[in-house]
Amino acid sequence: MKVIKKFFLYLFLIVILLVFIVPFLYALYNSFLPLADVDKLVPFSHFTVDNYVTLFTKYNMARWIWNTVVMTLIIVLGNVWFTTMAGYALAKFDFPGRSFLRFVVIVTMMVPFQLVVTPMYLTIVNIGWNNTMASITVPYVCQCIYVFFAQQYFYSIPKEMEEAARIDGLGRAGVFFRIVLPISKPCLTTIIILCFTGTWNSYFVPATFLTDEKLFPIVVGLNTVKAKYFARPNLSLAGVILLTLPVLVIYIIFQKWFIQGVASSGIKE
C-alpha cells in the first residue's frame, strides 16, 4: 500500500514539474533558433545566438537590465531594512496604537493597487518625480505585505532569548541587530525572494510612471520589442530567458531558507 501511495505521489510531483519546466524549456529551445526553425525539431548545428545579439545591438537591452538591477536592489534592500524593523516593533513592542497599526497594515494589503494608482500618480507628478527612477522605487521600499510577514515571523522568537540579551546589557537596537536578525535568515530570505521576483517582473508601475525608453526596466523594454517584432517569437523568447534566469538563480541560492521562512511565518507565540 505504501509503495502505491509513493508511486502516485511521485507521479503527481512529476506532472507538476512538467507543467512548470516545459514552458521554460520551450522558450529556451526556441530562443536559440532562427525564425524559420521555430517550433521545429532541428539538429544542434541550427542553433544560433543571433537573437540575443540582436537584443543587445539593436535595443538598449544592457541599459534595461541595469535599470532593472538598480530598481530591484533599491526596493529589496529598502524592504529588508524597513519592514523587518516595523514587523519587529509590531510583534514585540507594547505601545499605544499598536493594534490600530496592525489593522492598518492588514487593510492596506487588501486594497487593490489599481485603486490608489491615480492619486499616487498625481502625487508623483506634483513633487516632480514623474519619469524618474525615484517614481518606481521610493514608494515601494516598505511594503505592508512584508511588514506583516516579518511580524508573523518575529512572533516565533522566544521572549526569554531577548530578555537574556537585555540582562547582558544590550538595548532594544542591540537585541534586534545582534540577536534577532542573525537568527532570522528564513524570514529575510523569503522577503528577498518574493520582493526580488515581484520587482524584477514588474510591468504595471514602470509602464505607468515612465515614458523615457532609457529608464525602462527589462519587462517594459521587452514589450516594445514584442510590439515591433510581433512576428518574431524567437526574439521575444530570448528576452524571456534573459528575464527569467536571474529569478531562477536567486531562488536556487536561497531556496533552503525560503522554505523555512514560509513554514515558520504563521507561527505565533
UniProtKB/TrEMBL annotation:
<feature type="transmembrane region" description="Helical">
    <location>
        <begin position="175"/>
        <end position="200"/>
    </location>
</feature>
<dbReference type="Pfam" id="PF00528">
    <property type="entry name" value="BPD_transp_1"/>
</dbReference>
<comment type="similarity">
    <text>Belongs to the binding-protein-dependent transport system permease family.</text>
</comment>
<feature type="transmembrane region" description="Helical">
    <location>
        <begin position="103"/>
        <end position="124"/>
    </location>
</feature>
<keyword id="KW-0472">Membrane</keyword>
<protein>
    <submittedName>
        <fullName>ABC transporter permease</fullName>
    </submittedName>
</protein>
<dbReference type="InterPro" id="IPR035906">
    <property type="entry name" value="MetI-like_sf"/>
</dbReference>
<keyword id="KW-1003">Cell membrane</keyword>
<keyword id="KW-0812">Transmembrane</keyword>
<feature type="domain" description="ABC transmembrane type-1">
    <location>
        <begin position="65"/>
        <end position="254"/>
    </location>
</feature>
<feature type="transmembrane region" description="Helical">
    <location>
        <begin position="64"/>
        <end position="91"/>
    </location>
</feature>
<keyword id="KW-1133">Transmembrane helix</keyword>
<keyword id="KW-0813">Transport</keyword>
<dbReference type="InterPro" id="IPR000515">
    <property type="entry name" value="MetI-like"/>
</dbReference>
<dbReference type="GO" id="GO:0055085">
    <property type="term" value="P:transmembrane transport"/>
</dbReference>
<dbReference type="GO" id="GO:0005886">
    <property type="term" value="C:plasma membrane"/>
</dbReference>
<feature type="transmembrane region" description="Helical">
    <location>
        <begin position="235"/>
        <end position="254"/>
    </location>
</feature>
<feature type="transmembrane region" description="Helical">
    <location>
        <begin position="7"/>
        <end position="29"/>
    </location>
</feature>
<feature type="transmembrane region" description="Helical">
    <location>
        <begin position="136"/>
        <end position="155"/>
    </location>
</feature>
